[in-house]
Amino acid sequence: MINPAFIPDDFFKALAPSDIFGADGPFEVDLGCGDGGFLLQMAAHYPERRFLGIERLLGRVRGVCSRAAVRGLDNVKVFRVESRYFLEWMMQPGCISRLHYLCPDPWPKERHHKNRLVQEDFLPVLHRSLSDGGEFLFKTDHEGYFLWVLDHVARSGLFSRASWDEDEFFYPRTDFQLQWEAMGKPIYRARFIKLQKV
Q1: 150 is a domain residue
Q2: I need a labelling partner for 146 at 20 to 30 A (CA). Which of 70, 74, 133, 164 fits?
Q3: Residue 156: phi, psi to the nearest 5?
Q4: CATH classification at residue 79
Q5: Catalytic (active site) residue 105
């Protein structure tokens, strides 16, 4: 049976997609993949792409791995690690074609804003991780965090914002998005493209 769990031999070595999947090719990362609903649907729809789910909670990691194995998805791996550490220290530059950051904890209280992943010093890390023309896709139900991300990305000068119509391409809703939409909450989304540094 397929084993989707990824455990590196060395947590201090920068990885290439081939170190994870045994081959290179389109490589996408789902930061904070949760219960894996989005990740597994994407992997099933795009068998030519390789998908890595990043999740720090062990129970969730085990659940996603189990479902991926049952479905026979050999283009999915799940890695239990902190998102910032993974991007900053464990990925070789220019490897990720698309990074998905969907429905994260918005840390709504002002004193907790420092816990948000998207910060001024995070965006150069993200930029370095993406391939040329790579994409950063973000969704949230929290308007404050959405505006925070738009502001930080704009001030970084490292990305351009691209169009993202609802049916422009296959992009399944996460479990949290489905819950929020059932409650009548709006969903905010933004798609950013990596710019070349001048």
Answers
A1: yes
A2: 133
A3: -70, -30
A4: 3.40.50.150
A5: yes
